[in-house]
Amino acid sequence: MHLARFPRARFAHLPTPLEPLPRLGAALGIDLWVKRDDCTGLAGGGNKTRKLEFLLGEALKQGADTLVTQGAVQSNHVRQTIAAGARFGLATEVILEERTGSKAGDYMGNGNVLLDKLMGAAIRYVLGGSDMVAELEVTAESVRQRGGKPYVIPGGGSNTIGALGYVDCARELVVQADQMDLRIDRLVTATGSAGTHAGLVAGFAALSVDIPILGFGVRAPKPKQEENVFNLAVATAEMIGAAGRVKREMVVADCDYVGEGYGLVDQGVIDALALAARTEGLLLDPVYSGKAMKGLIDQARKGAFKGERVVFLHTGGAQGLFGYQSVLEPALA
Q: Disulfide engineering: 93 pairs with which of 122, 202, 211, 290, CB 3.0-4.6 Å?
């Protein structure tokens, strides 16, 4: 694969660290490491920054003056997209879906939402269950009617262009591991809009690297999540010249830890957040990395990773913790 063929705006802090988690690993009885994609640098960092390097590259190539995207109210992707727009002098218009149904003051106004407003985005709210593809087009057409040139980014930045960011991450991780003489037996991450998971699958497949990836789902049921990841991984592999490399068995999602739904926090998530914070000073988010860690903890305690060296891909999002104060504080007390 030769990623220099694709337009790219470079602003992420790369490579992100690959570090051991000795105290958390000891608590779980496994050899645990973390790939710190919370350290990508853009407005607090997170996994979407890698995707946005390629998405912004394409937007700038097309001469766009406005980024249009969508996400849930406490969307990490939206925060990072607005920051990328500010970095390159582009306006950003976002649609926030009230996906969880929460009307709590901290959820609606703190955390990522406060940062969105600080960075100057135009924000429009829609009800949960809205057709977000259609809403994106409504906003894009409004920009066109005003004489602007929109560049539409799907939720999570999860299309083939965005997934290139995690093709590159797969390469970066392998290089780091080789430099450290570190054998990786499994990579674990959250899987939601599919771009991170699919990019990693396509990247490892293109490199002929046999590192199984386990994605802990945050929203969709297992059949749907695996279908979404597989389809995007196949399309991404084709785009980078690795057609036919992605096999169905490479895509594995465990969606048993979603709980009551997307963005809804249960005691298992709170316990995972607390354990990571109190053993390693590692701050996870309540929606993605917290649920993935909840799954990893439970599976490790059941012996699923015995004898393996596991790398946890931290997708960032700790800024969202401040949108969940009313939920977290009583449980932690």
A: 122
Up-side HSE of residue 65: CA atoms within 13 Å toward CB?
A: 6
43 pLDDT above the threshold of 90: yes
Cis? peptide before 221, omega within 30° of 0: no
| Averaged pLDDT of the chain | 97
Q: What CATH topology corresponds to 3-46+158-332?
A: Rossmann fold (3.40.50)
Q: What's this model's pTM, rounded to 2 decimal places? A: 0.97
The phi and psi torsions of 216 (rounded to 5 degrees) equal -90, 120
Tokens for 219, please give them: 């929203």
Question: Which pLDDT tens digit goes with each residue over 117-135?
Answer: 999 999 999 999 999 999 9
E-strand stretches of the chain: 18-20, 31-36, 66-72, 91-98, 122-127, 150-152, 186-191, 213-217, 252-254, 309-314
**Strand 186-191's sheet: what is its strand order?**
18-20, 31-36, 309-314, 186-191, 213-217, 252-254
Domain extent listing, the chain: 3-46+158-332, 48-156
DSSP assignments along 110-169, one per residue: STHHHHHHHTT-EEEEEETT--HHHHHHHHHHHHHHTT--EEE--GGG-SHHHHHHHHHH
Reduced to 3 states, what is the DSSP secondary structure of residue 181?
coil
pLDDT digits (tens, 9 = 90+) for 138-158: 999 999 999 999 999 999 999
Catalytic residue among 75, 102, 158, 193: 75
CATH number of 48-156: 3.40.50.1100
Active site residue 75: yes
pLDDT at 333: 80
The three-class DSSP label of residue 188 is: strand
Chain position carrying tokens 């699958």: 201
Rounded to a whole number of angstroms, the CA Rg of the chain reads 19
The whole-angstrom separation of Cα 287 and Cα 134 is 25
**94, β-bridge pairs:** 69, 123
- For the record, the structure tokens of 155 come out as 């939720």
From residue 44, alpha-carbon distances to 220, 272, 299 in Å are 27, 21, 29
3-state SS class at 69 = strand
